[in-house]
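User: I'm putting together a teaching handout on how multi-component assemblies are represented. Below are the sequence lines for each component of a complex, exactly as they appear in our records. Could you produce the 3D structure of the whole assembly as structure tokens, so the students can see both representations side by side? Please keep the chain order the same as the input.
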Amino acid sequence: MIRAPRSIWSLALLTLSFVLVLGAGRAQARLTIEVTGGVEAAQPIAVVPFGVSEGLIPREDVAAIIAADLARSGRFRPMPTRDMLALPSTHEEVDLRDWSLLGMNNLVIGRVEQEGSGYRVGFTLYDVFRGEQLATSSVTTTQSGLRITAHRIADQIYEKLTGQPGVAATRIAYITASGRGSNQTVTLRVSDADGYNPQTIVSSGEPLMSPAWSPDGRRLAYVSFENRRSSIYVQDLASGRRDLVASYPGINSSPAFSPDGQRLAMTLSKDGNADIYVLNLMTRELTRLTDHFGIDTEPAWSPDGRDIIFTSDRGGSPQIYRMSTAGGPAGRVSFEGDYNARASYAPDGNSITMVTRVNGQFRIAVQDLRRGYTRLVSSGSLDESPSFAPNGSMVIYATVHGGRGVLATASVDGGGNQRLSQDTGEVREPAWSPLIK
Amino acid sequence: MTDHSTRVPVSFRHAVSGLSLVGVMVLLLGCASEPMREPLPPAAPASLPPPVPAAPVRVERPTYRGPWEDPSSPLYQRTIYFDYDSAEILPDYIALMRNHAAYLGSHANTRVTLEGHTDERGTREYNLALGDQRAEAVRRFMIAEGVIPDQMATLSYGEERAADPGRNESAWRQNRRVIIQY
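Assistant: Of course. Below is the structure of the complete assembly, with chains in the same order as your input.
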């Protein structure tokens, strides 16, 4: 039973008892990824196990990480190592005719050498048919930086071959929940895009909701109930330091950073019912954007920062509306179906992804804003919380699989689909980080 | 109400052990000018002092806090259920709310939290707003019945605190609710 705290100190104690706010560096059970189809059009590529200097045993298999990243994109079909006839690791050892006979379009070789207490990692990407080197580079890294170095190489290969930036070196924020009632533990976590390296950002006995990335990927905004009401926090990931930015009477919900990182759109009901507000994070000035007796919530910025789309039931059922961030009238954006909610833009601003109800089933849809055309990209019945990958190639969302909450990705451009789950507990509310420089 | 300048004191670099948390709590306790009470987790009502100023009526139930805990009292019914995606009060629950309004009207020092909830269908953020609308609808009804606004606070949990974790119609019906929490 919820009781009003007797004093501010008992409130502080409650907070301390239930909430752990953490900086980087806590290992947790990781998400495991299953590729669930859609790889027919994938291109064959060989990523040969990287050569190592005599006696060196690197802590990660760099080629395996690169191959897995390329496979997860759905655009490539890496060759199994056991099918390779040679394992070159230098240019002199490469005979492209071998790889041509094996039907490979591209070949990746590389080496990992000791350098100081870390490594030097070099790779070369070949176009097998043209007999050309498409990319070659060499970087140094610490021992613990070897995974992210491998992801960055995968992204260089992906970009060279597709013309789009890769997302292997990005991260995903998500909420986990286990236990029930007073034994419930809710955490906000951040992991690499392949589910590795999960770190708990906040852990609480009360609900946590709505993680949202700052455009530089360094901060997360989220909603926490640790003060026995919904409140919005902005937390620096590296230090764990955080600011309470909204804790008004009523709901404090749906934070969304502006593309310049200086403002935070949010939903507050302090003035009667849920409306959209924008908080300037520098001046702390709060501006009300909508004023309607219906529910207005789930704001999201257009990539150019000029517009905000949001969910409103002003027309009788939840639909997506758009208005200028300077204020003014809102126009309806979604027209198909009687429930459309929690929309957000693709990085190019030309489409949005949202939750839509079809025959009583909640699915993820992508709507082309220029043509008005909408298509479904998921097939669950309780799918929610979609957000685009920062290269626009796929959408990550929450779904139910085997009775449990898991994450899934759906291709937007013909790549593959994946499912990300934990061994125990629920996983939900994924948010894909921006491209991390 | 918003404290924009507040730096939350719980800010730790790297891993924090439970022990050091206790240390922080002890430090905070030491700074408090107000005498501290033991923190009372909601799961341990046995240690709560009787908040009702009147002499306890039931010695055998020392945790008794008011008639809303008595199954034979009309105030025992404290949950108002709603239709799907609706914050409209159903006629079935008007008598229930009137009972509580009458009690609050004659107990001006008693305060309640109107806790709004939804089922899991639809988006979480929309549901947080819907739970808020439901709690507000009950609050407005109670005000119309003469309850002083200051006696009531609203708190929406949206779909985050299901009464029944099932994923079916009967669970969803149980979860679309406002609870009058004394």
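A couple of points students might notice: Chain B touches chain A through 58 residues (CB under 8 Å). The radius of gyration of chain B is 20 Å.
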